[in-house]
Structure formats: structure tokens, C-alpha cells
Amino acid sequence: MWAGRHVVLGVSGGIACYKSCILARRLVDAGARVDAVLTESAAEFVRPLTFEALTGRPVVSSLWEPGGALSHVRLGHEADIIIVAPATAQLIARVAQGLADDVLTALLLARTAPLLLAPSMNDEMFAHPATRTNLDTLSRRGVALVGPETGALAEGPSDRPGRMSEPETILAHAARLVRGGGLAGKRVVVTAGPTREPIDPVRVVSNRSSGKMGYRVAEAAWERGGEVVLISGPTALAAPVGVTLRLIDSTRELEAAVRAELPTADVLVMAAAPADYRPSSPSASKRSRMEGALAIPMEPTEDILGSTRDQRKKGSVMVGFALETGDALAKGLAKLERKDLDLIVVNDALEPGAGFEKDTNRVAMLGRDGTRKILPLQSKRAVAEAILDVVEQSFGR
Ligand code: CTP
Questions:
Q1: Residues 52, 58, 63, 65: is their CA dihedral positive or negative?
Q2: What is the residue-level pLDDT of the chain in tens, covering all 397 positions?
Q3: Residue 23 C-alpha to ligand 1 middle, in angstroms?
Q4: Is residue 361, in this structure, part of any structural domain at all?
Q5: CATH of the domain at 249
Q6: 272 in ligand 1 pocket by Cβ < 6 Å?
Q7: Does residue 168 sit in the same domain as residue 215?
Q8: What is the best residue among 248, 277, 304 to mutate for testing ligand 1's pocket, by most ligand atoms within 8 Å of CB?
């Protein structure tokens, strides 16, 4: 989504400046055109040359250099977003008062672009009533804030907020601001990952689902302005920014979590791979090795989409997945009907680049209304965006 976007990255002088270099890099990698604007004290922490090398563009750090006086007006109007990271207590105070005593504050006073501040300061400074008042003033004026978070500060560990959010977190908040909120006001529930069914206290029956597809859907839905709940089985993935994560283990727990969320869900994206069978009577103690073959009696688990059908909110959009091995489209169509879905995302686990554990997927999307879209092999994030495009369309957005 950053491709072709113009970002002004304002940097004020705090130790978190080193993280702004990473933020600049991430934005450029994602395809954005980044203009870094540094205060005088930021340039003491990180030389403008560093940002110039990272962004491939000249850095603006003074009103008095050629073009400086006009660039503050131009940049504040042209940009898709202005991110100030770090925003120090001093910078925040100056912006709250409407000062324009250097190129960054002048740009912020003249701006029409949306503004995201990532405060970063000593925890006492952040807790000070002066800073609180300044931040309240800015919030009331529509300025968006990300962080600060609790964690290590330059002067040592702290259990109070002050530390600047990580570049990935700032990036996700910036994306949510820029993207226009196609899912704003919608509650989106996503399930992801495998379930585990106990054989005994130390062994489980599970599958190879990595959770990647569902996590990418949750991430993209939050960036589109949704309120997102991600119900996840055990995975190795980090919680996406902004998303409420509910961890489950067994199919029974997944069913209970989906049942609890469905009455208020505008969208359910059922990307989890629940086990279809569980050991009927798990042993209370660890089973010992024995001579000969082992047979474990299994019973079917709940079909979650089926058993929770009566909980669905009126007008909600239901999306399911079907991972098949051969004859995927026909099997997908049958599941679309059987599970009473609006959309089913079908893929064939035997195709190269598709299926579990991969970062890419090749899917077909089959709609209740008979639409059929075959997508090329692409990243799971791109597949997530394609799914959410269809979801947004069904809300008439
Ligand atoms: N699903 C579910 N409850 C289950 C198993 C699957 O709700 N116990 C959901 C999955 O999350 C997915 C869809 O149903 O969105 C299809 O899953 P899949 O495993 O392909 O379907 P099954 O019903 O298990 O059918 P089969 O194993 O016969 O292919």
C-alpha cells in the first residue's frame, strides 16, 4: 500500500532517532517516497547524511538552506502523511503552542496532511501534567498518536511509558491512517493456525498450519480501519499491531471462542485449520512405549462453521477456506454451500508455492453469488488484501 505514497518523516532530537533510520528504511522498502525533515538537535544524534542515504533524497533540516523556506509549506501539503518519530516532549510542546521556529514546526503548522506522532521521552517527562496537556490538545485537534510504550529507556529500565514504539508498530498505525478506513466501524473476527488435540499430557494430534494466512488477514483488516479479534491456535508468529489476540489450543476452545464473538462480528474469516478428529479418551498420564502397533481411538470434533451458524449476526459476511489436494474448485464449491458461506478461498496444497507454512499462496475465490476469481501466485498479504476487497464490496464500500 505504500507504493507511490509520499511520506514526510519528521525527526526531533532524542535517542530514539536511531529507530527512525529503520523506519525510513522500511518505508522506502515498501515503496514510499520519503522526505526526512530533521530538527537541529535530531541532526546532533543522527547526521542528515544517514537519512539521505536511506531515502535517496535530500534531507530538509533548515529554513535557511536553498528552498528550505518554501519546502515547509509544500511538503506539509503534498504528503500523504507526516510521521514525527521520535516526537520529543519539547517538539510536542512547540507543536501544541503553534510555534514555527524551525523547519519541522513550521511545516507542522502549515500542514494539511494527516499527522502521526510517536512520542519518546523520559518517563517522568511523559507523566508531567504539561506534557499530558499538550498531548490532549493535539489529540483534540485530530493528531494521531502511537505509543509511547513501557520498556527500557536510555537511562535504564522503566515500568512506565516513555519508550518510542517500534518502527513496525509506527508503520502499521501510519498505514491505518493513510488507507481510508474501508472496514471502519466493522468488527472483524479472524481465526488462524492449527488446533491441538491431546493424546496424553505431553502429546498432541495437530497439523502443519503455520497461521500465516490468518495473521496477514488480521493485519490487513486492522489497517483498513476494522476492529479486529484474532483467535489463534499455537503459532510462532508475533501478534499483529492493534489486533486483540485470543489464544486457543483445542478445536473445542476454538469453537467456544468463535461462538462468543459471532453475535457481534460483521465479518468472520475462518482461516484456522481445526483438527477434524480428536483422541476420544486422552490419557491422564503419559503413555509409555509398548511393544507392537498403537491404535488411538478418535472421535470427530465440532464443525465450527456449522455448529455456530445460529450465532451469526444478520448481514454479516462469512469467509471460509478450503485446502484441498486435487480437484480443488469442485470441492471448494461444495464446501461453500455446505458451510453456508459468502466466500470460500480455495487452494491446492500440492501446487508449488501454495498451502501451509509458505509465505505465498495461489488461491481461487468463489462467491455465493457465483463469482469466481483465480488469483496468481502471490504473497499471503496480497491474498489477504484481495479477500478483504471482496468483503468491503459486499458492504457496498
Ligand atoms: N472448519 C470448521 N470446523 C472444523 C474444520 C474446518 O469450521 N472442524 C472450517 C475451516 O476453518 C475452513 C472450512 O471449515 O474455513 C473448511 O475447512 P476444511 O478443513 O477444508 O473442511 P472440512 O469441513 O474439514 O472438510 P474436509 O476435511 O472433508 O475437506
A1: positive
A2: 899 999 999 999 999 999 999 999 999 999 999 999 999 999 999 999 999 999 999 998 877 776 656 677 788 889 999 999 999 999 999 999 999 999 999 999 999 999 999 999 999 999 999 999 999 999 999 999 999 999 888 888 888 999 999 999 999 999 999 998 999 999 999 999 999 999 999 999 999 999 999 999 999 999 999 999 999 999 999 999 999 999 999 999 999 999 999 999 999 999 999 999 999 999 999 999 889 999 999 999 999 999 999 999 999 999 999 988 888 899 999 999 999 999 999 988 777 766 666 788 889 999 999 999 999 999 999 999 999 999 999 998 7
A3: 40
A4: yes
A5: 3.40.50.10300
A6: yes
A7: no
A8: 304
- Active-site residues, by number, are 207
Ligand 1 pocket, mutate which of 217, 251, 261, 305 (most atoms under 8 A from CB): 305
Domain ranges, residue 245? 187-277+299-396
Quick check: bond before 157 cis, omega within 30? no
Residue 14 sits in the same domain as residue 91: yes
Q: How far is the CA of 304 from the centre of ligand 1 (A)?
A: 8
Same domain, yes or no: 142 and 215 = no
Q: What is the pTM assigned to this prediction?
A: 0.92
CA atoms within 13 A on the CB side of 379: 7
102 and 237 co-located in one domain: no
- Contact 270 CB / ligand 1 (< 6 Å): yes
Which residue, of 127, 155, 179, is where some domain finishes? Answer: 179
111 & 198 share domain: no
Query: How many distinct structural domains can be found in the chain?
Result: 2
Choose among 117, 122, 116: nearest CA to 151.
Answer: 122
Ligand 1 centroid–CA 31 distance in Å is: 37
Q: Minimal CA–CA distance to 75: which of 6, 144, 3, 142? A: 6
Cα dihedral across residues 299, 304, 306, 310: positive or negative: positive
- Which residue puts its alpha carbon closest to atom 18 of ligand 1? 322
| Contact 356 CB / ligand 1 (< 6 Å) | no
Q: In this structure, are 273 and 147 located in the same domain?
A: no
